[in-house]
User: What shape does this take?
Amino acid sequence: MKKFNKFLSVAVASAMVMAMAGCGNTDNGSAATGTNAATESAAASDSAASGSVFKIGGIGPTTGGAAVYGLAVQHGAEIAVEEINAAGGINGYQVEFKFQDDEADAEKSVNAYNALKDWGAQIIDGSTTSGACIAVTDKTKEDNMFQITPSGSAVECVQYDNNFRVCFSDPNQGLASAQYIGENGLAEKIAVIYDSSDVYSSGIYEKFAKEAENQPFEIVAAEAFTADNKTDFSVQLQKAKDAGADMVFLPIYYQESALILTQAAAMGYAPKWFSCDGMDGILGGVDNFDVSLTEGVMLLTPFAADATDDLTQSFVTKYKEKYGETPNQFAADSYDAIYVIKAAIEKSGVTPDMSVSDICDGMKAAMTEITVDGLTGNGMTWTADGEANKAPKAVVIENGAYKAM
Amino acid sequence: MSFISYLINGISLGSVYALIALGYTMVYGIAKMLNFAHGDVIMVGAFITYTMCSTMGLSPVIGVLAAVVACTLLGMAIEKVAYKPLRKAASPLAVLITAIGVSYLLQNVALLIFGANAKAFTSVVSVPALKLADGQINITGETIVTILSCLVIMAGLMLFINKTKAGQAMLAVSEDKGAAQLMGINVDGTIALTFAIGSGLAAVAGVLLCSAYPSLTPYTGSMPGIKAFVAAVFGGIGSIPGALVGGILLGIIEIFGKAYISSQMADAIVFAVLIVVLLVKPAGLFGKNIQEKV
Assistant: This one.
């Protein structure tokens, strides 16, 4: 009996370890973070001595389940940096860009930030995912380093005065979605399926639910799932169906959306679908996915790769040439982030030989004065609290491609 | 009507858990170790079928057979390389940690080969959906095949263990390794056979899991693996009928918890039930309490 208990306790303990580590994997980022404070300051003075390039650090998951986003952010930024350098740099200074993997994990994101600091980063383009980004904001605040996140949409991603973002915040997406559905009379009874363990998804949902009170539709079912339980959606769909929802709102990422669309089709449930920018990627992000299931799905996204303007066309062409895939919104956000950094540097006139903190102060002040025409919006401006002002765009999927609504 | 849908979905999910739990329970019963890499063998099986069927366009039958063969070999290789040398180690923790290591190894190798993009698994099941009560209840072909396969495999396994020599050898090794060896049973061979069967079943479970929930990533196996481990403990680890009952109950509790209590609390409810069961019956539903003489 005693022996059995021992086995069992070992088993339960390790089950917990496995559960906690369940979606993790090996760490590329922390290899470089073993350096101590002494080498850190040495590295910092090193880069200050070199002083002729701007060093921009990027952070995001390039491995793990969210790798699609991190890689997009990395690639989008790399293209922007290449263009800028080829055109003579920012105010004549070349730009160096280095990207660190954080596996979408808060702790590893801080490690990645530390590694970038050791490298001599002066400006941060990241982190890619909200949870990781929030953790890094505390560190950049301490160091007073300028940080712009391409895609961290949680409210707290821009909680300090040195944090800015390119994408919409979660509440803004929830608000815009509710208003769009209401104003266009798209549905009367709406069911929501959201990820309660994810700040992105629950952030959108909460604001959506609040705004729904002012809109001519009714939320008839609000069903949650969590990161540990996101393969079986039969119950959530059944409840939405039973409640008579004619539209299902999915403020979630496309991987789960793909499963939901497949399972809904299998059970013969065909409501209208509405989603946010997390749905961006559904057309190419899931290999072998039957794209015909997405026919008629509507989503709010600031970037559509098939847009015909010159900027989008040239970006998409370069991206495809270099990385062999169609860029998604995250790549576009990150591309814009680098150009926003460029605009803020040019406006403020900061130079690479200044301290990180002085660069940050200069850029911070410049942010509210710049206007950037980017891939994800024309005439984007920023408020001092870090939010971008731009108009949301709704697209509908027709014949396997986005079409403006 | 929804109730029946939920029940059927629960049994279907539970059948997958049961198939995976078999691997845990057999290995625990015979080698007295927890093979935490088991969940990832499922993922490997699913990826092999995916590659065969979706990428190379072969028939599902060949895809599934290839997955079973490959996973059987993989299971034996893992046992031989990673676990066997540690079987005599002083602490049972050594082999447990190795198992966790193997689990990460498999995940990362899969990540390297297949990338992080989720793959939509093409169902290998071509049975049409069953519509009952004027279409109010819709039982998918995957559900039917999953439940049937689980029952057939379970029955086959019980027959194998009770009626064949190799099966009897397994029972003997699980009762007393030393004595079994003295009776001329090849203990190492029997343990290898256990891993082979468990891993072959994992391949089947992987294919069924991904047919029902068609999303395949290198991490697909880890959560079902943990749930199945819970199912094995729930049913009484070491007991084969326990794995079946534990798995199916777990699936039903999970779906009912989601449907009638709270969709976001589903896992908490499952684990709460586990705790209650272990408090009342510390060895699980079908487990044996073996008194050890000091």
